Amino acid sequence: KDISFADEGDKNCVSVYMTLPGVHEIPSNKVCVWMTPTTLEVRVVDLQGSNWFYLAQELWGQIDPERSTWKVRKDKLSLKLQKRASARSWDRWEKIRRI
Predict the structure, then answer these.
(1) pTM for the model
(2) Which of 1, 19, 21, 35 is the most buried (most CB within 10 A)?
């Protein structure tokens, strides 16, 4: 599954695109997205016979979960993560953790 993002500075949000072939063909209640100011979790149940899960444990900057949105589109999930007023420009959309 391919994931891409774009920082839309003029709109103060980050767009995230998750390529999930066939996601538009499953019932909407099988796609779940949870957001907090610093995390993002996505679960897709029974997508072509398997479950898909994504977790960003620490986003690059803080978002406003109340104003952030997501939509199922043809073969992809589109998310608009609304940045907090103090959020800087994002050159990546989640922090890389060193173990």
Answers:
(1) 0.83
(2) 35
Q: Write out pLDDT tens, residues 23-32.
A: 999 999 999 9
Q: Tokens 């390529």 sit at which residue?
A: 19
Torsion of CA 15, 46, 40, 33, to 10 degrees: 80
Question: Which letter does DSSP use for residue 63 in this model?
Answer: B
Question: For residue 93, which amino acid is it?
Answer: W
User: Residue 7 forms beta bridges with which residues?
Assistant: 14
User: Which token pair is 19?
Assistant: 């390529």
The secondary structure element, H or E, covering residue 70 is strand 69-73
Only one residue has tokens 């072509």, namely 48
In the three-class reduction of DSSP (H, G, I as helix; E, B as strand; rest coil), residue 9 is classed as helix
